């Protein structure tokens, strides 16, 4: 069972994630931010999840969870051509999507004096995907929706030696 979302995630980070992701989705997919967290049972879906970690003070990660049909829509909007969901290119596209969003997040945080080193993205595709974290770890959910579909971002606090996805440089 995954941890319940909390509001304990640092606001400076959640704001940077919300702004960077909103800008990316609005410009590439005509998708708008919905200021209401998705219910935890809506996070488990068949689709694709891409996550990236940030090591700094604090260390944290985010995971973008996108249902199958909407993943195809985002991939076409981002790449400019149709990409079948089951193709190897779909994983590459979503790795690059979170990489672009993470780069914008890093720039926004850097302007606020918060340094963090980002990892390479990890992409998972399958049925009933979710990112499980220990119950004591702070999480926050952001939901995005528009005419073409919806998706969720899960922010995860990284504590101690806990690793979410890859370490920076790995």
Topology:
Elements: H1 11-29, E1 32-34, E2 45-56, E3 59-67, H2 68-79, H3 88-111, E4 116-118, E5 122-129, E6 139-146, E7 149-158
Antiparallel strand pairs: 1-6, 2-3, 2-4, 2-5, 3-7, 6-7
Helix pairs in contact: 1-3, 2-3
How would you sum up this structure, described in words?
The chain has helices spanning 11-29, 68-79, 88-111; strands spanning 32-34, 45-56, 59-67, 116-118, 122-129, 139-146, 149-158. By secondary structure, the protein is an alpha+beta fold. The chain has one domain (11-158): Chemotaxis protein chec (3-Layer(aba) Sandwich). Strands 1, 2, 3, 4, 5, 6 and 7 form a 7-stranded antiparallel beta sheet that branches. A hairpin with a 2-residue loop joins strand 2 (45-56) and strand 3. Residues 1-7 and 166-170 have low confidence and may be disordered.
> Average pLDDT across residues?
81
Please provide the count of β strands.
Answer: 7
* Text of the CATH class: Alpha Beta
What's the order of the H and E elements? HEEEHHEEEE
Task: List segments where confidence is low: pLDDT < 50 over at least 5 consecutive residues.
Answer: 1-7, 166-170
Question: How helical, in percent, are the residues?
Answer: 25-40%
- Report the structural category: alpha+beta
Query: Describe the biggest sheet?
Result: 7 strands, antiparallel
- Measured distance between first and last alpha carbons: 28 Å
CATH topology: Chemotaxis protein chec
| Strand content bin | 25-35%
The CATH superfamily bears the name CheC-like
Taken from the alpha-carbon principal axes, the silhouette is globular
**Tally of individual domains:** 1
Radius of gyration: 15 Å
- What CATH architecture would you give? 3-Layer(aba) Sandwich
Count of discrete alpha- or pi-helical segments spanning 4 or more residues: 3
């Amino acid at each position: 069972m995954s941890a319940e979302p909390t509001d304990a995630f640092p606001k400076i980070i959640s704001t940077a994630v919300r702004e960077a992701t909103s800008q990316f989705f609005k410009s590439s997919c005509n998708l708008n931010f919905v200021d209401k967290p998705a219910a935890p049972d809506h996070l488990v879906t068949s689709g694709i999840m891409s996550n990236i970690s940030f090591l700094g003070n604090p260390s944290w990660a985010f995971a973008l969870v996108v249902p199958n049909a909407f993943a195809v829509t985002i991939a076409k909007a981002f790449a400019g051509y149709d990409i079948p969901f089951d193709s190897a290119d779909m994983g590459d596209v979503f790795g690059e999507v979170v990489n672009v969003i993470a780069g914008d997040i890093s720039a926004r945080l850097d302007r606020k004096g918060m340094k963090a080193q980002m990892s390479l993205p990890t992409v998972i595709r399958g049925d009933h995907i979710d990112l499980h974290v220990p119950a004591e770890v702070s999480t926050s959910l952001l939901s995005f929706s528009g005419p073409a579909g919806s998706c969720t971002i899960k922010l995860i606090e990284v504590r101690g030696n806990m690793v979410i996805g890859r370490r920076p440089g790995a």
